Amino acid sequence: MRSRRHILDSTLRDGAQTPGLCLTREQKLKIAALLDAGGARQIEAGVPASSRREKETIARIVENRKNAAISVWGRLVPSDIAHAIDCRPDVIHVSAPVSHTHIHARLGKDEAWVIGRLRVCLGLIGKSGATPSVGLEDAFRGEPRFMEAVADTLLDFGVKRVRISDTVGVALPGAVREVLTRLSSRLGDGAVLGFHAHNDLGMAVANTVEAAKHGCLYADVTAGGIGERAGNCDLARLVAASSDIFDWGMTEAAAFKLQRDILETLRPENAWLPDAVP
Amino acid sequence: MIRVTDRTLSCLDAAPAKAPALRRFLELLVRTGPDAIELSEGMWGLLGPLPDYPGYVLRIERAEDAARYPRTPRFVCRDAPVGADPKITGEILLGDMGEAPAAAPRRAFGRVRLQGLGGAMTGDYLGIFARLRERFRGPIEFCPTDRRGFATALAAEWLINGGGSEAVASFGGVGGFAPTEEVIMVLKLAGLRDAGRTYGFFPEMASLLQEVTGDPVPPGKPVLGKRIFHVESGIHVDGVLKRPECYEPFPPETAGLERKILLGGQSGAASVRAKLEELGIKHRAADIPAILEGVKKKSGEKKGALTNREFAEIAGACAT
């Protein structure tokens, strides 16, 4: 019997960050409707803090949805969380960097700052009624002991939803197993894990399957695998590659049609986008 | 010691015989540094005399064909008896999950190539690897097929965590195998080979392969795609400008590519500052928000990234 796993589609968030891609509000609403009707369990609708127009669009997506949970993405910034709360999503995802490179070089902060900000942001989300979700950004270059400290903070706040992100696409399946095993052990049985792959070395689908084999309930995908650099895990390829062991809530044919319909929505202005692969 | 065989030139017999493009491709393939380069008999004839290189392998249809190439040191041949001739590697096709055909030898000590296992990622592939190493006791060249998009991961796991030491791949994944450039980059980033080596000629190889096969290289293809080091979103541009490895798995020049900051709907202030400096446009910090707003508005109107000229016009209009 196949195990149930869930599609978390990030076409409207990480996919929308594909350089050169510019989505109109109408395109975003249409894509969200396609995903909602097509079997995605969760739709990552965007980044509310990025603009007033983005917030309005996300609020419309929340209003329109019939089936899927709607999540939004924010940095470890209280104002990002405030903007997120305004959209009244089901899930607010906050991204917490866990690698030395991201904490020190990009943010110019330290690990104590990350933990402190995480506590502030989780406190805000907790008051909003939305489900908190925390992403461990750059987890495959992160310090294991610091990730454990972050995990302990999540336990303090009762956070169940945790996403492990291979931010620069350098993870091997063996590393996926190792990080997930360690994190699962720290977080305990109640944790609901997700995996966010990047395809820089051509392993996004394989790593996502490996994550799903090792307990990840949610798989982050985008239509056609669009996204920064070499992109993300390709929705249709993931479903096609692993439907013999996982029930993704959609058949291979349905995933292909959904992906094709989304890419067709984008294609008039973006002929360079990938084709949907049957 | 880890060994990688490239088999691109045994997968192109059905493509037009564009000898100049293929000769140049072979020259660059030698510079890529695989431990062996496999050619079909057709390519062997078309491209000869071959560039100086010690690791050529000739693919032959029947084991007895080896006699026609007395000076060739190594051959690979489908279903040739494993171990019967030390110069010939017998190739055995495995099923999706590593099932070996009943006729395949057990506990054979000769060199063997195992091709297949395209679906093994969905199962206990490390267990499969262990069983194959038990069954075939000589050197194993593992050539995973890419039917489900797992080939690079399977090759990497075989070499790094699976007890194997030899993998077979093809540039761009031509023929349906693990892309050589991905396998090489995985090993390089893992510190297992080619420290210090760069591949500035990969774009030319991709272009030559496209010329021969007629199949365009997708702009987002790992390692080869022309757009993989383009960056637009504010958070990514900010990170890359502070330290490129924040959002780049390897330096673009390693693969002959360039970082390019695009301005569009996802841009942030860091992108605007960087582009102003790149174009040598004098500005005041107070102008940045208005320029950024102008960039987003223009991107929304044209539904895409701005050209440098469009950006300069906006910056000029916003100057106070």
Task: Describe the overall structure.
The complex is a heterodimer of chains A (278) and B (320). Chain A is α/β, with parallel strands linked by helices. Chain A has a single domain (3-269), classed as TIM Barrel (Alpha-Beta Barrel), CATH 3.20.20.70. Helix content of chain A is 44%, strand content 16%. In chain A, the strands form two sheets. Chain A has an eight-stranded parallel beta barrel, surrounded by seven helices. Chain A has a two-stranded parallel sheet with strand order 1-10. In chain A, helix 9 (235-242) packs antiparallel against helix 10 (252-266). The longest helix of chain A is centred in the middle third of the chain and has 18 residues, at 111-128. The mean pLDDT of chain A is 96. With 320 residues, chain B is α/β, with parallel strands linked by helices. Chain B has two domains: 3-213, Aldolase class I (TIM Barrel), CATH 3.20.20; 230-318, no CATH class. Chain B contains ten helices and ten strands. Chain B has helices spanning 19-32, 41-47, 125-135, 151-160, 180-189, 202-213, 234-242, 269-278, 288-302, 308-318; strands at 3-9, 36-40, 56-60, 75-78, 88-93, 112-116, 140-144, 166-169, 230-231, 260-261. Classes of the chains: A alpha/beta (278), B alpha/beta (320). At the A-B interface, helix 4, helix 8 and helix 9 of A face helix 4, helix 5, strand 9, helix 7 and helix 9 of B.
SSE topology:
The complex is a heterodimer of chains A (278) and B (320).
Chain A: E1 3-4, E2 6-9, H1 25-38, E3 42-44, H2 52-64, E4 69-74, H3 78-86, E5 91-97, H4 100-106, H5 111-128, E6 131-137, H6 144-156, E7 161-165, H7 173-187, E8 192-196, H8 204-213, E9 218-221, H9 235-242, E10 246-247, H10 252-266
Parallel strand pairs in A: 1-10, 2-3, 2-9, 3-4, 4-5, 5-6, 6-7, 7-8, 8-9
Chain B: E1 3-9, H1 19-32, E2 36-40, H2 41-47, E3 56-60, E4 75-78, E5 88-93, E6 112-116, H3 125-135, E7 140-144, H4 151-160, E8 166-169, H5 180-189, H6 202-213, E9 230-231, H7 234-242, E10 260-261, H8 269-278, H9 288-302, H10 308-318
Parallel strand pairs in B: 1-2, 1-8, 2-3, 3-4, 4-5, 5-6, 6-7, 7-8, 9-10
Helix pairs in contact in B: 1-6, 4-5, 7-8, 9-10
